[in-house]
Design goal:
The structure is a single chain. With 142 residues, the protein is mainly α. The chain has a single domain, classed as Arc Repressor Mutant, subunit A (Orthogonal Bundle), CATH 1.10.10. The chain has a two-stranded antiparallel ribbon with strand order 1-2. β1 and β2 form a beta hairpin. The protein is elongated.
Length: 142
């Protein structure tokens, strides 16, 4: 058994990585990303909305339009993406909202989940899209 991030944050990270890999190519069409990432355009259209609202992606209209990263890949962390798309940085709801469980004040496992959440997101904060681009290049050259 494993703890799972939502498809939304996994595919959102892949979307952002793809855009970072093509950062200097100008605006990118979602259909091109969808083909490369084997994800439906409709799903990417849903994922891109919060990323645009948060200022990570800009959309350009017109025949040469598409989507571009609003910041350089070295300025966007995986924590930024996952935290946004998971709607928070906690593995369990009671870490953020103590009203969801009457045991929050006496529950030692809540402390465990809070520490685990912090450890995971501290690590994700250290990984930028630029880092992932480099990892992808290294994997492709093998």
């Amino acid at each position: 058994m494993s703890i799972k991030l939502s498809t939304r944050s996994r595919y959102g990270t892949r979307l952002m990585l793809d855009m970072a890999q093509h950062y200097n190519d100008g605006p990118i069409h979602l259909s091109d990303i969808a083909k490369r990432q084997d994800v439906s355009v409709k799903y990417l259209e849903q994922i891109i909305i919060p990323l645009k609202k948060a200022g990570y992606i800009e959309s350009l209209r017109g025949p040469k339009g598409g989507h571009i990263l609003a910041k350089p890949p070295e300025e966007i962390t995986v924590k930024d993406i996952v935290g946004l798309l998971e709607e928070g940085t906690s593995l369990v709801e009671c870490c953020d909202d103590t009203t969801v469980c009457k045991r929050t004040d006496i529950c030692p496992t809540r402390i465990l989940w809070k520490e685990a959440s912090e450890a995971m997101f501290d690590r994700l904060q250290t990984i930028t899209l630029a880092d992932l681009v480099e990892k992808a290049k290294a994997m492709q050259s093998k």
